[in-house]
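FAQ: What does the model actually see?

It sees only this:
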Amino acid sequence: MQHVRQPMSIAQIIAWILIRKSSAYLNEIADSIMLATLIHEQSPWVKWLAFLLAVGLLVILSPITPFTTEDGIPITLQSLLVVFLPILLGWRIGVASVVAYLIIGGLGAPVFSFGTYGWNRFTGSSGGFLLAFPIAGLLAGYAMEQFQHTKSLLIGALLLFAGQFIILGLGLFWYRAIIPVEESMLGSVQRLLPGMFVKTAFGGLALVLIKRLITTALKSRHL
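And it is asked to produce this:
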């Protein structure tokens, strides 16, 4: 008996169109080369410019502290930026900019959370967070370069979250070793996770927008 193919319903047609459109949209973004790859192919002065811009971004945005937790842990863009930049620019330029930022703060520029500064910040309660910055940036940036040919922005978002989680884990361990906290380690992590999810979503959106800008610029350049 010959099987008669049933016509698709309106809902199925709409779903099919949305899937095709979203797939084409993601492929368009994914096909855009990583900014790190483009920079790597440029002359040294372009790499220095990217480095200086990254340091400037860290210096300007990192001191901004929208709010703090009940036990005094500041919630800033620091933990996002120090992971985002190595993912975006490559681990070499990204980590170098993070290290430069830490040195600038250590030398006396008020670029840490709450506008603080000084080498004593590295031995105080927030020292674990600061020392974890280049570690997380290195791991996330290097991993992103290994996965850059997968054409998946999901990898970038996962690495953004993983990098921030590394900072959170090392920072909390250091913090709790200096300042006694009644709350369990797991409780502290669970309380800070929503903020990490928000920052990860923000960082992922920024990656999408930047890659779209790169794609548009490359297409217009070859017209």
